[in-house]
């Protein structure tokens, strides 16, 4: 079955870096665009970044632009989010999600999330 | 900066109908914004309900329907059930790879 499993979350100090991973299985990973979406404690969902199926294009929310980098390794069926210069406001559960194959239709399948806490 | 607005909360009786909306600060929502809708219960990952305005995701019951109502995207729950009590989010595609979520609507069934 289609599955996305995030990992790499944890507690990190402000200004430090962290890399999240999302392992995909049950589908042809290289056919799909992929998202990162986050949710701060008690808050709503926030789109973070998207990457095209072949990694040729990436787009970011203004809140993370210049600090976060989305990437993928299609040979390993894995999506990444490199997070640098972390701030306390980056504290959230981070979800990876598959994009609908047939168009810019949003998030199709979601992982269970990994929690990032930025605190001194 | 584009803001997507949803009602903060709604209450619906079991078996009743409720319509949630998703509005755009910069103007009208249309099908070209590809609105989609997600359901989330506390502690769980979101679940996709509706995409491309009105297409139901796999396994989603037909009591959930999407549409454009006036100048907003809308999610209607017809015949609400107790397990529909959740937070509901819309997201709109702004073009150029940019997506914006609404703030979410908390639906209570009582």
Give a quick rundown of the structure.
The complex is a heterodimer of chains A (120) and B (110). Chain A has 120 residues and is mostly beta strands.
Task: Provide key terms for this protein.
heterodimer, A: 120 residues, mainly beta, seven-stranded mixed β-sheet, four-stranded antiparallel β-sheet, 11 strands, 0% helix, 51% strand, globular, B: 110 residues
Structure description:
- The complex is a heterodimer of chains A (120) and B (110).
- In chain A, strands 2, 4, 5, 6, 9, 10 and 11 form a seven-stranded mixed sheet that branches. In chain A, strands 1-3-8-7 form a four-stranded antiparallel sheet, with no helix packed on it.
- Chain A is mostly beta strands and 120 residues long.
- Chain A contains no helices and eleven strands.
- The relative contact order of chain A is 0.31.
- Helices cover 0% and strands 51% of the residues of chain A.
- The relative contact order of chain B is 0.33.
The unreliable regions of chain A are none
Helical stretch tally of chain A: 0
Strand content of chain A: over 45%
Main sheet specs of chain A: 7 strands, mixed
Distance between the termini of chain A: 40 Å
Structural class call of chain A reads mainly beta
How would a crystallographer describe the biggest sheet of chain B?
7 strands, mixed
Question: What is the 3D form of chain A?
Answer: globular
Fraction of residues in helix of chain A: under 10%
The N- to C-terminal Cα distance of chain B equals: 37 Å
Number of helices of chain B: 0
Oligomer: heterodimer
By DSSP, the count of extended strands of chain A is: 11
As residue ranges, the low-confidence spans of chain B are: none
Q: In percent, how helical is the residue content of chain B? A: under 10%
Present the secondary structure layout.
The complex is a heterodimer of chains A (120) and B (110).
Chain A: E1 3-7, E2 10-12, E3 18-25, E4 34-39, E5 45-51, E6 58-60, E7 68-73, E8 78-83, E9 92-99, E10 107-110, E11 114-118
Parallel strand pairs in A: 2-11
Antiparallel strand pairs in A: 1-3, 3-8, 4-5, 4-9, 5-6, 7-8, 9-10, 9-11
Chain B: E1 4-6, E2 9-12, E3 17-24, E4 36-40, E5 47-51, E6 55-56, E7 64-69, E8 72-78, E9 86-95, E10 98-101, E11 105-109
Parallel strand pairs in B: 2-11
Antiparallel strand pairs in B: 1-3, 3-8, 4-5, 4-9, 5-6, 7-8, 9-10, 9-11
């Amino acid at each position: 079955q289609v599955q996305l499993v995030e990992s790499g979350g944890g507690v990190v100090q402000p200004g430090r870096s962290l890399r999240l991973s999302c392992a995909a299985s049950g589908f042809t990973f290289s056919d799909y665009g992929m998202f990162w979406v986050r949710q701060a404690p008690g808050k709503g969902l926030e789109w973070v970044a998207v990457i095209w199926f072949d990694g040729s294009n990436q787009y970011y929310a203004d809140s993370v632009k210049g600090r976060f980098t989305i990437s993928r390794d299609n040979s390993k069926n894995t999506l990444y989010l490199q997070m640098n210069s972390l701030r306390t406001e980056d504290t959230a559960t981070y979800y990876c999600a598959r994009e609908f194959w047939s168009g810019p239709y949003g998030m199709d399948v979601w992982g269970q999330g990994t929690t990032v806490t930025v605190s001194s | 900066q584009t803001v997507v607005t949803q009602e903060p909360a709604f209450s619906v009786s079991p078996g009743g109908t409720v319509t949630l909306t998703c509005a755009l600060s910069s103007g009208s929502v249309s099908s070209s914004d590809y609105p989609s809708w997600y359901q989330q219960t506390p502690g769980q990952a979101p679940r996709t309900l509706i995409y491309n305005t009105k297409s139901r995701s796999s396994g989603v019951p037909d009591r959930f329907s999407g549409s454009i109502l006036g100048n907003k995207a809308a999610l209607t729950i017809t015949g609400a059930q107790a397990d529909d009590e959740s937070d509901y989010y819309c997201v709109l595609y702004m073009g150029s790879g940019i997506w914006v979520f609404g703030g979410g609507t908390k639906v209570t069934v009582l």
